[in-house]
Amino acid sequence: MSFSRRHSIIQYDYSINNVILQRINQVEDLGFIFTPTLSFAPHIDWIVGKALRSLGFIRRHAGSVMSVRCLLILYTTLVRSIVEYGSVVWSPRTKGDIIRIERVQHRFLNMVSRSLGINHEPHDYKPVLIALNLSTLSERRNMSDIKLLNGLVFGVIDSPDLLSRIGFRIPGITRSRDPYYLAPVSKNYLDDDPLRRAMSLVNSQTS
């Protein structure tokens, strides 16, 4: 597999003991699906499908006999963990992917809302979230990003290389109170960098 965002890639056949290695279009490594363009769309497809299958299993075998508390434990353990694993690496940027992932939790909320006797408007699950003391999946991904950044800044995570990539804003004559400096980028996909995304989140909360 060759990684590039160019439309035409110069490909070279690699071989071991005169046997040409087969070229592949995607590979799973450490629980992530990687593609030549480093797009995580296939990974998101995979985790959403896997999470929905797990939720369907819970609904079929335990949905009508277990308490809401037990269902919540099963959901957070067997379903939510699937769509949150390593989210700092692949966190979605497009609105479509964000909605698709959020629908996993919406299906669970819709299932338990009947047991809780909570009436809610279609596609408005905020009353159920409040009742269960849950955050949206998008909010939880943001918290994971900020947790990574804070871990590096306060020395909880020992990684001098990552720490050196954090742009601290030096106080000057500007009125900006942003704690981090984000250098301009020429490509939109560069905003997907985990540290840059985390710094942008923190800046948005302090401005």
Give short descriptive properties of this protein.
single chain; 207 residues; mainly alpha; 3 domains; two-stranded antiparallel sheet; two-stranded antiparallel ribbon; 8 helices; 5% strand; flat
Task: Describe the overall structure.
This protein is mainly alpha-helical and 207 residues long. It folds into three domains: 1-37, no CATH class; 40-134; 143-206, no CATH class. 51% of the residues lie in helices and 5% in strands. The protein contains eight helices and four strands. It has helices at residues 41-62, 68-84, 87-90, 95-116, 126-132, 137-153, 160-163, 194-206, and strands at residues 15-16, 19-20, 27-29, 32-34. It has a two-stranded antiparallel ribbon with strand order 1-2. A two-stranded antiparallel sheet has the order 3-4. β1 (15-16) and β2 (19-20) form a beta hairpin. α1 (41-62) runs antiparallel to α2 (68-84), α1 packs parallel to α4 and α2 runs antiparallel to α4. The radius of gyration is 21 Å and the shape is flat. The model has no long low-confidence stretch (mean pLDDT 89).
Q: Mean pLDDT across all residues, rounded?
A: 89
Largest sheet: 2 strands, antiparallel
Q: What's the SSE pattern?
A: EEEEHHHHHHHH
Shape: flat
Structural class: mainly alpha
Low-confidence parts, pLDDT < 50 over ≥5 residues?
Answer: none
What is the topology, as strand order, of the major beta sheet?
A: 1-2
**Radius of gyration from the CA trace?**
21 Å
Count of domain modules: 3
Helical segment tally? 8
End-to-end C-alpha gap: 42 Å
**Care to count the β-strands?**
4
Strand content: under 5%
Overall helicity: 40-55%
